[in-house]
Amino acid sequence: MALMDLNCLLRGVPGLDGIVCQINQVECNMTNFLKNTFARFAKDEKGVTLVEYGIALILAVTVGTVALTNLGNNVIGEMDEAGALMN
Known about the structure:
Order of helices and strands: HHH
Strand content: under 5%
Radius of gyration: 30 Å
Number of domains: 2
Structural class: mainly alpha
Helix content: over 70%
Number of helices: 3
Number of strands: 0
Shape: rod-shaped
């Protein structure tokens, strides 16, 4: 259940006004925390470098996998051909 739904359910219930205020405060604190965190990430240049390294790593792994797969298939083909000539 979302905080807003819980807030609406508890509003007007006798003795629970304090809980409604606490829920509003928690929601406000969480919103501010997320806004500040995203703003900090947007300003941080180190994150950009990390992303670039991640993309380069993924690209290298992909190219390596394709190259080794093709090499393996070529070796299998050559071995099959050599085996056929021996029979």
